[in-house]
């Protein structure tokens, strides 16, 4: 399990936009120490998900479209990476010979329990609450 650098950068981009002003990608990158090329890739994903909005022109850039009160770390992970699993055996399509309907794997059950706790924690606080802790 790994929270990717792309997720980390997406959270940083959202932090840069926290003051609800239009900010250029270059300014975002300067504030949050992110490369411009990866910032554009991430902003496209965030915009497609309806989290941020782009503005064209000389004073263009990006701004929040959705409140940080309504976005969690889990939401960002889903937008950028689709899912975060602690082990591949928790994937829906994964076929494990040790975990069948007639013989349920105890380890799989434990991984599932831990995954539920992790997911709950990632969903428990909004980004605005996380950013106010810093």
TrEMBL record:
Gene3D superfamilies: Winged helix-like DNA-binding domain superfamily/Winged helix DNA-binding domain. Coiled coil: none annotated. GO terms for molecular function: DNA-binding transcription factor activity. SUPFAM superfamilies: Winged helix' DNA-binding domain (SSF46785). It comes from the Bacteria. GO terms for cellular component: cytosol. NCBIfam families: rrf2_super. This is Rrf2 family transcriptional regulator. It comes from Blautia liquoris.
């Amino acid at each position: 399990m790994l929270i990717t650098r792309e997720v980390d950068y997406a959270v940083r981009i959202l932090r840069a936009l926290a003051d609800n002003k239009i900010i250029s990608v270059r300014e975002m990158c300067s504030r949050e120490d992110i490369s411009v090329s990866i910032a554009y890739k991430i902003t496209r994903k965030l915009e497609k998900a309806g989290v941020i909005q782009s503005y064209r022109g000389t004073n263009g850039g990006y701004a929040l479209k959705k409140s940080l009160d309504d976005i969690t770390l889990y939401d960002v992970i889903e937008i950028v990476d689709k899912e975060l699993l602690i082990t591949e055996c928790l994937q829906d399509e994964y076929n494990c010979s040790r975990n069948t309907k007639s013989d349920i794997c105890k380890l799989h059950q434990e991984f599932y329990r831990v995954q539920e706790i992790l997911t709950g924690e990632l969903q428990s606080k909004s980004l605005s609450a996380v950013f106010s802790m810093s």
